[in-house]
Design a protein that fits this description.
Blueprint: H1 3-14, H2 18-26, H3 30-50, H4 57-85, H5 92-101, H6 114-119, H7 122-134, H8 138-172
């Protein structure tokens, strides 16, 4: 398939067309194109961050596509393993290919803030891709996608609370610190 045909399939996956996800997963060359689609999403995020960065935009344009691709391999691996625990039968390659081609909503990240909101559409896309590729129920697919998201949100909240507590404790003890000017 050509880039244009994969783009068309990606639009169908974004419209939550389960058959399009299956079609992409069956294509031999879809894996490489999925990597490209994830990299374009990272490039879009990098370009979007240039508009709000303070001089670090060049690094973001270079770094974000690489990090987006690396993150996509990890994210797909987590979803793949959880889908297998829920009785899924799909392959990693098929799962990655369909997620990658269906990730075109992340290209909207070229527009700061609004793009990030649009990119949230990748959540239902991940659900239908997981459901179709692994041949599991919608409920199980929702659980597969939400479990790691909830886990990471909880970890992030714990980290924020711990940093906040450390900062608060530091502020509370500032009056008890020795005055170094007298030494």
């Amino acid at each position: 398939m050509t880039f244009k045909e994969y783009l068309s399939k990606g639009m169908e996956i974004v419209k939550l067309n389960r058959d399009a996800a299956s079609d992409v997963a069956e294509q031999e060359d879809a894996f490489g194109m999925a990597i490209l689609f994830f990299a374009i999403g990272g490039l879009a995020a990098g370009l979007g961050s240039v508009m709000v960065s303070l001089g670090f935009g060049f690094f973001m344009v270079i770094l974000f596509p690489v990090m987006h691709v690396i993150g996509s391999f990890i994210w797909t691996g987590i979803l793949f393993l959880l889908a297998r625990l829920f009785g899924g039968t799909g392959t990693y390659k098929a799962h990655y290919s369909a997620l990658g081609i269906g990730s075109i909503a992340s290209w909207a990240q070229v527009v700061p803030v609004l793009g990030g909101i649009v990119a949230l559409w990748n959540i239902p896309v991940a659900v239908i891709v997981t459901e179709r590729i692994h041949r599991i129920s919608t409920g199980k697919a929702v659980a597969v996608v939400l479990i790691p998201m909830v886990f990471f949100i909880v970890i992030a909240l714990i980290a924020v609370v711990m940093v906040g507590m450390a900062a608060f404790m530091g502020l509370m003890n500032m009056n008890q610190m020795p005055n170094f000017k007298t030494f």
